[in-house]
Design goal:
The termini are far apart. It contains ten helices and twelve strands. The chain is globular, with a radius of gyration of 23 Å. The protein is an alpha/beta fold. Helix 3 links the parallel strand 1 and strand 2. Helix content is 39%, strand content 16%.
Length: 282
């Protein structure tokens, strides 16, 4: 009987200790979450004219230069860059540098998922939203000039007249839903040796009516892994085929830059079909 009471008493002490540890851990978690979370007032969100979403690679002690350039370009036009980051340290660095911050769902190997990125834009329905690959750099003057044009009253009138390159036929005669797409300019050493990327692919998307989603259906896109090939071609082709938005090619006026670099992993050579077929993360 005494042994049973001893065991019962010992169990109660361990239970209380565990409960205290769980409680203290919960408090610490909330404190840390509060420290690194970035709350933006809805009235501030409604003031934004442009929101560009980027999901950069994690674990940076300082914000990469390319992201700072995008921040500056958006700020000039009354917008913000929204960085999708999950690490508390990254979120803290980004928030201190003047970025909006949100979380992103990831694949099992840490790649951001496309549907999570598109979902993040939907809370900014009053703004023009977009996203681009994290290894792009804006040509500040060209990007700012283009953003100002899109925000101007003459934008809708001009593209309906065919003064921009329309990739799709008119989905609905009176629709004002549009999607701007752009490919990148590749360079080796500096912007002066830039060349249009001709191997196919889209690197930049910008659209209105965010709650409708990028495809214009109001639904989530598939959970493609960013960093894998061909999701960009699928996304643009699907938008054209669904005919819910006017698709506009802005490659030349946007002039977004990309420094040539070696690709990592099995897909370092996309032309090698053996490597492509064996890549489980396709």
């Amino acid at each position: 009987m005494k042994q049973r009471d001893y065991i019962s008493s010992r169990f109660k002490k361990q239970y209380k200790l565990r409960s205290c540890i769980i409680f203290i851990s919960g408090i610490l978690y909330l404190l840390v979450l509060g420290k690194y979370s970035v709350s933006v007032d809805q009235s501030e969100i409604n003031k934004l004219k442009l929101v560009l979403v980027i999901a950069p690679k994690p674990n940076f002690s300082n914000v990469p230069k390319s992201l700072l350039l995008w921040r500056n370009a958006l700020t000039l036009s009354g917008g913000k860059v929204l960085l999708l980051l999950n690490l508390p340290s990254d979120r803290s660095v980004a928030a201190k540098a003047g970025f909006l911050v949100d979380y992103v769902r990831e694949s099992h190997n840490g790649l951001p998922l496309l549907n999570s990125i598109i979902d993040a834009t939907k809370k900014y329905d009053s703004a023009i939203v977009g996203f681009c690959n994290s290894d792009l750099e804006p040509s500040l003057h060209d990007v700012h000039t283009f953003f100002e044009y899109v925000l101007s009253e003459s934008w809708a009138e001009n593209w309906r007249k065919g003064e921009t390159e329309i990739l799709s036929s008119d989905p609905m005669p009176h629709s004002d839903a549009w999607l701007i797409v752009a490919s990148r300019m590749d360079y080796q050493n500096n912007f002066t040796d830039k060349k249009p990327h001709k191997a196919g692919g889209v690197d930049f998307w910008l659209w209105n009516h965010a709650k409708l989603g990028i495809l214009g259906l109001g639904e989530s896109t598939p959970a493609f892994r960013l960093g894998r090939p061909l999701f960009d071609n699928w996304l643009t082709a699907m938008a054209i085929q669904l005919r819910q938005r006017h698709i506009i090619d802005a490659t030349m006026p946007l002039n977004v830059m990309h420094k040539n670099h070696e690709r990592l992993g099995q897909l370092s050579s996309w032309k090698n079909t053996t490597l492509r077929s064996s890549d489980e993360d396709w």
